[in-house]
Amino acid sequence: MDNVNDSASINERSKSIRKTLLQERQAILKEAKTEIGNFVKGDEKQLVEAAIDDGDWSVVDVNEDIILQKLHHHKLKLNKIDEALRKLNDGSYGICDDCGIEISEARLRVLPYAVHCVECKEKREKIEQVEKEQSFQ
């Protein structure tokens, strides 16, 4: 009987995680569509039409860069969410990609699309920091 209860509990957990991931995915898509719509229909056009000198054009360029960076960030996050949904389907959700150990519930509650446990993520961040520092030398 415990196996039945455990199975039901795991199924409920999976449904809850899937719902959270899908809600976050929808929110990101909605925000991205709004940003794209604003970009295409006129907010950017007003800046372009008002641009007179190089300083104005710099503002237009920076504004475009910010919008494109936000859209890129949305794309990366959507990819992570899609990967988490795939892992949920194949049964590998919540397992660290690096060490194969279970990712803590606390971490997954905060970041439901996490693919690394805290320890492995910290190692990766340290390596990235060292590589960044060496690239500046």
TrEMBL record:
PROSITE patterns xref list: ZF_DKSA_1, ZF_DKSA_2
Zinc among keywords: yes
Membrane spanning residue stretches: none
Span of domain Zinc finger DksA/TraR C4-type: 91-126
Zinc finger (dksA C4-type): 96-120
InterPro entries reported for this sequence: DnaK_N, Znf_DskA_TraR, Znf_DskA_TraR_CS
Keywords on record: Metal-binding, Zinc, Zinc-finger
Name of the protein in its database record: Molecular chaperone DnaK
Organism name: Candidatus Magnetominusculus xianensis
